[in-house]
Design brief:
The chain contains four helices and no strands. It is mainly alpha-helical. The termini are far apart. It has one domain.
Length: about 120
């Protein structure tokens, strides 16, 4: 069980690291999105990636606390941290979706006004 949880924690950490530092998706929107909104989106995604890295560490330590028989307080604190980090990640992802919906609505309105413009 510990090895599977360790591998999962590693995958979550790697995904968070990539999302925080190497994902070019938000920067590609700089051509069609206002600069302040795009900067907010880039910062949002970086913070979300760092939260994923922190969650990976807490997942690993939480699983280790169960396997190794650490104190109940430490185990509960680690798993509560995982829950809080997961809620934070979900909240930031929903905010990113809200920004994307606004961008799509704006582009849709521009297309309605001038259908020849791509």
């Amino acid at each position: 069980m510990f090895s599977i949880a360790s591998i999962f924690s590693l995958l979550v950490g790697v995904a968070g690291w990539y999302y925080a530092f190497y994902s070019p998706a938000a920067a590609r929107l700089s051509n069609i999105e206002a600069a302040p909104v795009n900067n907010r989106r880039v910062r949002l995604r970086r913070v979300n990636g760092l939260l994923m890295c922190a969650m990976a560490v807490c997942l690993f330590l939480g699983t280790a606390s169960l396997e190794r028989g650490w104190s109940a307080v430490a185990t509960v604190a680690l798993w509560f941290a995982v829950l809080i980090l997961m809620l934070g990640i979900a909240a930031f992802a929903l905010y990113d979706l809200r920004l994307t919906a606004r961008l799509r609505a704006k582009l849709h309105e521009q297309l309605k006004r001038d259908p020849r413009k791509d």
